[in-house]
Amino acid sequence: MITLKGENIRLRALEPEDLDFIYEVENDESIWHVSNTQTPYSYYLIRQYLENAQQDIYEARQLRLAVCHHDDVTPIGLIDLFDFDPKNHRAGIGILIQNAKDRNKRAGTEALGLLIRYAFSKLALRQVYANIDTENEASIRLFTKFGFHRIGVKEQWNLQDGKYRDEALYQLLNPQF
């Protein structure tokens, strides 16, 4: 699929072979605050999730893709469209590049650009949005690079390490509408 291939990065559907990678990501407590996770996931639950990952976005209301380098099928991250709302033509976007060694090398930038293009051109979405901790400067820079605008702040929204943190809502409207 040309839409999901960039210069160095490609986005692909999840495969059964991604079980270990997703297990590691979902059980990494250092990033649970990003996904509002509080409990670990078992191999069994993740295997069930992967078995259902072939569902169409219209059924599942979510699309999760693996972020990979062109020359490798091993994922370096995950990118999602979530809360897909076909009636109102919108969805949320979340992205995670798992290892720090793969960050700040344009993989996240390229992956986000590919997913935005896919959401607007193939799914005909009117808008996409992201919920970002107001102290997550790297994510704020990434999303604003694509024209996302902060449209509001949910004060004291998430409890992390005993402290309530604000979460900002960023939105990007499809310029073709």
TrEMBL record:
PROSITE patterns: GNAT (PS51186)
Swiss-Prot/TrEMBL keywords: Transferase
Cytoplasm recorded as keyword: no
GO-annotated molecular function: acyltransferase activity, transferring groups other than amino-acyl groups
Keyword match S-adenosyl-L-methionine: no
Boundaries of every N-acetyltransferase domain copy: 9-166
Family matches, as InterPro entries: Acyl_CoA_acyltransferase, GNAT_dom
Pfam families in the record: Acetyltransf_3
Protein name as catalogued: GNAT family N-acetyltransferase
Organism of provenance: Flavobacterium magnum
